[in-house]
Amino acid sequence: MYNKTMLKEDSVTDDRLTLRLLIDRIPIQKRRVIFALLASAAFLLIIAFLAGGVTYAGRSFLPISRIEVTEILNMERADVLARAGIENQTYWMINKTRVRANLLAIAAIKGAVVEKRFPDTLVITLEARKPAAMVMSLAGGAGVLQYVDETGKVFEKGKSVPSNMHLPIITDANMQNPYAGAQFHSSVVDLLKTMSTVSSALLSHISEIEIDWKITGEYRLDLYDLIVYPKSSSIRVRMNAELDDAYISKMLLAVKTVEREYNTDEIDYRSNDPVFIPKGGFH
User: Fold this and answer.
1) Mean pLDDT split into 10-residue runs, the chain, 283 residues
2) pTM of the model
3) Helix H segments across 93-182?
4) Nearest to 21, CA basis, from 9, 13, 11, 29
5) Which of 186, 192, 219, 272 is the most exposed place for a label (fewest CB within 10 A)?
6) Where exactly are the structural domains of the chain?
């Protein structure tokens, strides 16, 4: 007596024999045509699969249908995606290394991580450059403001000084015709790195830092002084380039003292003992 398993196996065997008999009855020429059509259909199915025509769990998983961007900076999302070079690309077509290189070519972006998450998601994590200062440079004979990060990279042009600006403006940094992506000289980078360690609360009391080069064409940190202009004061202060919180705090205190007790508009604070220069200079 057959059990249920044996009956099932016999049924499958009968189906295979029936299919084989049907195939054998087809003339060889027609059989080749059918196999060719089946091969073509399989090929077209693969093409559709790669193009995103196949669905998984009720949705297309090869086209990118979700793009997550963690930080847009000051750019429109559509502009970021266009610069990334991922428009009209499917999941398999996306080259993460190329997309990352495209994003890092944008001056305002310091870092980028590109991740593909199966079946249809692209995740872009961006790190924006943060301004260490605004730098005033010359372009076509006119002053131009640029945002510069602590690495000396120019990443955005400033139309005007924001009213809530807490960073000083650096002048006479010796860069002609700057552009987004330009790199300042290493001596200016040293100053920006030094400034990045100073308390933003202290820097907010300074409106301008002028670089006073000692030797024209020699741009080393030890070959220039700084002329610092505190806010809410007409007094300027000549300082060394090695800025820190203690140095700036003492300078601001000296400015307050001078305003109350001395008739001066300049302080030389390159040594431990500030020198108050009277208006009109020494005679």
Assistant:
1) 46 53 63 67 60 45 73 81 85 91 92 90 90 80 83 80 72 77 84 89 92 69 84 91 92 86 85 80 52
2) 0.66
3) 96-104
4) 13
5) 272
6) 26-60, 63-128, 133-278
